[in-house]
Amino acid sequence: MTDLSDRGNLLTEALNPASENLDQLSTLELVDVINAEDAKVAVVVAQQREAIARAIDLAAASLRKGGRLVYVGAGTSGRLGVLDAAECPPTFQTDPQQVQGAIAGGFEALVRSAEGKEDEWAAGVAEMVERQISAVDVVMGIAAGGTTPYVRGALAEARDRGAATLFFACVPENQVPMECDVNLRVSVGPEVLAGSTRMKAGTATKLVLNAISTGVMVQLGKVYGNLMVDVAVTNAKLRDRAIRILTTLTDCDRPEAEALLESAELQVKPALLMYWSGCEYAIAQSALARADGNLRVARNQLR
């Protein structure tokens, strides 16, 4: 069995020869080294395209059945999971319960380091118990080095409860094994600053989470073309975006689009159906309900 307490041999802890004289470089040279290492990240993320696609399919199937996608992490990994979850309601008008982020140490760990909390396997178990994780949910553990007890405890408990599990790490599976439904192993290599996984590993985490949450929402009909037609109109910027979506997908000028948006109670999808089919708001909403919120399906039904 792999000794997960020995982190010295992890790829994420290795020394990077490209930055071995980091403290002797000029500022411009330092920036160039960091940038050159960052450029490698998207390449290795692309190598996990099939695993990312499987993760999207699992999570989308879960949400269709009323389940949840729950990210679990510590430190940078946890913060990035919470960030991705927090972005879903304004971008896709999801219920905040649908995509959740759990971080070792709780809310305070978002703004103040609570690194000791990540060592608590039992805390990860308790997190799953408290959230009442069940077979309808998907839980994604995020741990750059793969060894975080809090994350591994949470995934073990989630599996015991019948949930589908995903595991993201920046170390090879043979170095740090993890039993789960989808293993996402993005080997970004040693960090410019040895062991500082907020750097390349953090960037890789953000790229993968972006792909997963966006892919899931596309599958759930939250996107039309490449437009966020379920945008929550909660401030001036998002109102402007909603109006621009309407002017893009209709022949309305801006004042007409504003009036259309108002008549649809600030909801872009029904506004578009009202324009395309000439129906009333209630009929548009009913069509969307029959189509499980998929605008393209609802449009075809109203033709």
Task: Give an account of the 3D structure.
This protein has 303 residues and is α/β, with parallel strands linked by helices. It has helices spanning 27-38, 41-46, 49-64, 75-92, 121-130, 149-160, 200-219, 236-249, 254-263, 268-277, 281-290, 295-302, and strands spanning 69-73, 99-103, 138-142, 164-169, 182-185. α4 links the parallel β1 (69-73) and β2. The longest helix has 20 residues, at 200-219.
Shape: globular
CATH superfamily of the largest domain: Glucose-6-phosphate isomerase like protein, domain 1
β-strand number: 5
Q: What order do the SSEs take from the amino end to the carboxyl end, as H and E?
A: HHHEHEHEHEEHHHHHH
Helix content: 40-55%
Q: What portion of residues belong to β-strands?
A: 5-15%
Distance between the termini: 61 Å
Instruction: Name the average pLDDT.
Output: 94
The CATH class of the largest domain is Alpha Beta
Q: Uncertain spans, ≥5 residues at pLDDT below 50? A: none
The total domain count is 2
Q: For the report, how would you describe the main beta sheet?
A: 5 strands, parallel
In short:
This protein has 303 residues and is α/β, with parallel strands linked by helices.
Supply the key terms.
303 residues; alpha/beta; Rossmann fold; Helicase, Ruva Protein, domain 3; 2 domains; five-stranded parallel β-sheet; 12 helices; 5 strands; globular
List the topology elements.
Elements: H1 27-38, H2 41-46, H3 49-64, E1 69-73, H4 75-92, E2 99-103, H5 121-130, E3 138-142, H6 149-160, E4 164-169, E5 182-185, H7 200-219, H8 236-249, H9 254-263, H10 268-277, H11 281-290, H12 295-302
Parallel strand pairs: 1-2, 1-3, 3-4, 4-5
Helix pairs in contact: 3-7, 4-7, 5-6, 8-9, 10-11, 10-12, 11-12
